[in-house]
Amino acid sequence: MSALAPTLEAFLTERLMAQRGASPNTVASYRDTFRLLLRFAAERTGKRPSELDFSDLDAALIGAFLEHLELCRGNSVRTRNNRLAAVHSLFSYSALRHPEHAATIQRVLAIPVKLCDRKIVTYLDDEEVDALLGACDLGTWAGRRDQALLDVAVEAGPRISELASLRCSDVTLGRGANLHVTGKGRKERAVPLGKGAVKLLRAWLPETGGDPAGPLFPTTTGNQMTRDAIEHRIALYVGRAAAGCPSLLRKRPTAHSLRHTCAMRLRAKGVPIEVIALILGHEDIATTYGFYLHADLRAAEHAISLVASPKTKPGRYRAPDPLLRFLEGL
Which residues are CB-contacts of 133 (< 8 A; sequence separation ≥ 6)? Predict the structure, then answer.
């Protein structure tokens, strides 16, 4: 067995789990990265994954792997950069343990993250939210579950991983109703629930099976819903609701769009950005400012309306010199 295999095992079990106490989601993300990388490298080199060494995972192969993620798997630049971060973390861990591969490791660590466009966030207006929730078939158990799930996603704004991992015991109804959420880095927060969410959850909880430790939004077999399952259900209701609300097809909302919707609804009500950051579980308030102040067109329109138009006459620039006129005309 090569030096890579035991180093990778030690990195995942000792460094991530034992020393850093990384969350299961973090460990799973790193695991998936190396699973994809080793399969790609095995196909390129003709070696079994357990036979691969650091010399096989050189900068050229890692670069080809990153290109494969974008072009063949259709991953976004952000996903590509997340995969690269996992590779960098492993190679940094390996640098002092395998100095004989120092040159290869340093070249991999020198691979930069890729810049990407920062698009305006996609969120739903009130009419679109009503259409999405109204598409749930309340005559079925799954439809009632999905309506409660979508309403919580819009009103509380959890990440999709947080939404999937919610337990029945995380819900507090009655006075001071709130949702106990465990977010990134195992940071816990209590998110207040509105009257609409409380009403839906009060009706839904008896249908979950009665186990406080059970998932709040289980599958038909009683297991926790996966992220893909949640996205699939959202896409299903988008398709149903699009007949009466065509704008949903243009926006193609995801679970993260519902999180953005929660933030923008709060912003429209005048809730301070600092409070929105607490509700969403943003560790750095600059993240909240960057996303939601930039997307708040109402605030921008109001600011522009306060500024008087300059009293200038329209005109065209004319170069004062014939040579400059020639250059301007090229």
Answer: 147, 150, 151, 154
Among left, alpha and beta (phi > 0; psi -120 to 50; other), residue 55 is alpha
Q: What angle in degrees, to the nearest 10, is found between the helix axes of 141-156 and 126-134?
A: 160
What class, spelled out in words, does domain 126-305 have in CATH? mainly alpha
Whether 186 is catalytic is no
Catalytic residue among 101, 145, 259, 267: 259
Sign of the Cα torsion 118, 127, 200, 233 reads: negative
What are the tens digits of pLDDT across the range 185-203? 778 999 999 999 999 999 9
Closest CA to 264 of 125, 131, 119: 125
Q: Annotated catalytic residue: which of 80, 83, 145, 159?
A: 159
- The predicted-structure confidence for 143-159, as pLDDT tens digits, reads as follows 999 999 999 999 999 99
Q: Residue 53 is encoded by which pair of tokens?
A: 């060494």
184 is catalytic: yes
Instruction: Tell me the backbone φ, ψ of residue 172, rounded to 5 degrees.
Output: -120, 120
CA dist., res. 162 & res. 45, Å (int): 39
Report the candidate in 180, 228, 223, 230 with the shortest Cα–Cα distance to residue 201: 180
Residue 258, H or E segment: helix 255-268
Residue type (1 letter), 231: E
User: Which listed residue (101, 145, 265, 282) is catalytic?
Assistant: 282
Contact 190, 182 (CB under 8 A): no
User: Is 237 a residue of the active site?
Assistant: no
Our answer to whether residue 47 is catalytic in this structure is: no
Tell me the domain boundaries of the chain.
Answer: 4-109, 126-305
- Which residue among 184, 189, 227, 251 is the active-site one? 184
282 carries an active-site annotation: yes
